[in-house]
Amino acid sequence: MGRPKTQTDRRLTLVAAAESMIAKRGLAGVTLRDVANEAGMSSSALLYYYPGLKDLLDDVQRKAVERFCTLRAASVAEIADPRLRLKTMIESGLPTDADDQLCRLLLELGAYSRSDASYAARHITLFERQVSIYVGILEAGAATGIFKLQAASETIARSLVVLEDGLGLHLVNVVPAVDQASALAILTSYAELATGCSLR
Fold it and tell me: In this protein, which residues make up the domain named HTH tetR-type (predicted)?
């Protein structure tokens, strides 16, 4: 990696290096030295920008959550048909494959939520922002009569995000329990039952 010139650039370089190392080794296998090497700087130089690994991972998670939610919102923003919006939203919530770096990153960092309040708070934000996008799609479809919701929009939305998370974990395992097509079919089937509308 080339040497960035500003503090912001250096932080972005370190965040990218940390993301790369997490994707390669998993969160438990990453050290500050690994990240510094990946970024092309010394460990002492890294400590100038982040006093410890947790501080760096906080920034990694914050940026990953924002990127994921922004990408999902953008994927449906210009779609008028509620059916196509819901279908597109479902497709955007699953890892494309075991090497999907952003999804792997969020799933790895989610494990810290069990023991660290700041990680848990950001993980809740990630969850609620996705739920909010789904609620908007579901309520728009119900308002036009295209969807006949079988439960409250928030209940359906939360169920979809929970299903995505569970299936996503299986998809990025070394030996996946389901493949991407099967996971997508499971989510789509649930969405069709919950909305009383075919999405195929």
Answer: 8-68
